[in-house]
Amino acid sequence: MAFLGPLIKTALSIHENLTSVTDHVKSQEKVLRNMLITAQDTSFGIYYDFDSILESDDIRHAFAKAIPFYDYHKMNDRWWQQMKQGKPDITWPGVPSFLARSSGTTGKKSKMIPVTDEMITAIKDAGTSQVSALSNFNLDPSIFEKEVLVLGSSTDLDHKNGFTIGEISGISASQIPEFLSSFYKPGKEIASIDDWDERVHQIAIQSENWDIGMLSGIPSWIEIMLKRVMEYHKVDSIHDVWPNLSVYTSGGVAYEPYRSSFEKLFSKPVQIVDTYLASEGFIASQQRPETDAMQLVTDGGIYFEFVPFKPEYINPDGSIVEDAPVLHLGAVKENVDYALIISTVSGAWRYLIGDTIKFTDVDRAEIKITGRTKFFLNVVGSQLSVLKMETAITDLQNKFDTAIKEFTVCAKKNKGEFYHVWTLGTTTEVSEKELASHLDDLLQKANKNYKVARSKALKGVIVNKVAPEIFSKWNDYNKKKGGQVKMEKVMKEETFKEWEQFCKSTIT
C-alpha cells in the first residue's frame, strides 16, 4: 500500500485552499501597484512617470492613459535593445539573466524576450498552483508518487553576451529544484540533447525504466513521442509501457482536435488538464474538472488588460490601433473575444502578446484561447477566429469519424474572386469536395459574419488533403521542431504559396 501519495495529495489540497485567489480584480490591482513601485526608477518608469500613476486615485485608468500599446518589435527596438547591450534598469530593475527565444509559430527570425528572476519565481509559483489544483480532480492518490515526463525544449541553453538563452520550456526545466529531480523525466542528461529526434529516441530507450504518471507538452509533439515509444516497444497502447499514466497537461494549442487520435494511444482513462505558458510568462491553467477553461494567474507577476477584438481596432499586421478601448479585469464580459495585453515582472509593458481570448466565467477569471491577432481571417469580412475554425474542424471530424489534427488556411484570390483554401492533415477517404462542402456549411451555421461574406465577396471553399506528418516536416524544414513550436493556422498568400510548393515536393 502506498502511503506517500495520499499525504502528497492532502498537502496539495491544503496548499490549494490556502493560496487560491478569491478576488481576482483586487489581486490584479495589487500586482499592478507592486510592479509600478518596483519599476518606478527604471528608464521606462521615469519616462512614463510611474510616480504620478501611483499617486492617481485610479491607477488602472492612469496606467492605461499614460502608456501606449507595445508589440515585441516596438518594445525591443526602443527599450530592450539597450538592456541586451548590458545596460541596467531599462524596463525592469537590473539586467535579466535569461532571454527566452520565442518560436511559437513557424517564422524566419526568433524573438528574444527577457526573463527576470522575478518571472522565474512567478512561473514556479504558477506551476505549483497548477499541481496543487490536481487535488480537485478525481485522481488516485498514488499518482502523486509517480514520475512526470515533460517534453519541452532542450535544457542545453546558449550563453551569449552575458545572457542564458533558450525557449521558455527549456529555461523552466533547467530551473527545476534538485529535490524534485527524481520525479522529473527525461532527466537533465536527455533533456539537454539539442536534436529533438535524438532526444525522443533516448526517451524511447529509457521509457521502460520510468513509472510515468503525468505528461506535459504540446499535443503535436507529445503524440509523436508517444508513438515512437510505442513503436520502440512494439505495443498497441502507451499504457503497456506506462500503466500508471493518468494525467496529461496540454498546452500551446487546443487539445480537442487531437482528442480522437490520443484516445487511440490510451487504453486507460487519462485526465486532460489545459495550461497556457508563453515565452512572456505563465498566463493561465485549468483549476477544476467541471470545465476545460483555464483560470488566469492573477497573482503571478502579470497584469492583464483586454481590447475588444473587432476589425476596427486591429491593424492588418495584427497590431492594435492606438485609440482602441481597453478594459481591466473588472470590466470584461463573458463570450466576447479580446486581444490580450500584458505587463509583466520581466519588464514588458502594455504588451500585445498576440493571442485572443474569451471569458467563460468572469468571477473565476476563467478563459479560453480563441486564436491569434495575426491568424484572424477577415480578408472579406468573414471574421473567423482560430477557435471558430477549430470548432468547425472538430465537428467535421465527428461527422466523418476521422482525425484532422492539423490544418492551415489562406484567403486566396483566383480570377478576381476570393476563396478560403484549406489544407487538412488527414488520412480520411472522404473526398476533398465533400469535406469542403461540409466545412463551408458548418462555418455558415456557426458564424453569421462568415455567412454574409459567403453571400458576397467570398466565392467558396477549397480543401486539399495532405498526410498529417507533412505539418511536422514543414516545421523541420523551417528549422523549428519540438518545444513550443506551433503550426500557423492562417497564412498570408506568399507563405501559403511556399507551403503549397512544399506539400507538392514532399508528396512527390
From TrEMBL:
One of its GO terms (molecular function) is acid-amino acid ligase activity. Pfam families: GH3, GH3_C, GH3_M. Residues 390-494 form the GH3 C-terminal domain. InterPro entries: GH3, GH3_C, GH3_M. It comes from the Bacteria. Residues 297-362 form the GH3 middle domain. One of its GO terms (cellular component) is cytoplasm. PANTHER family: GH3 DOMAIN-CONTAINING PROTEIN. This is Putative auxin-regulated protein. It comes from Nonlabens tegetincola.
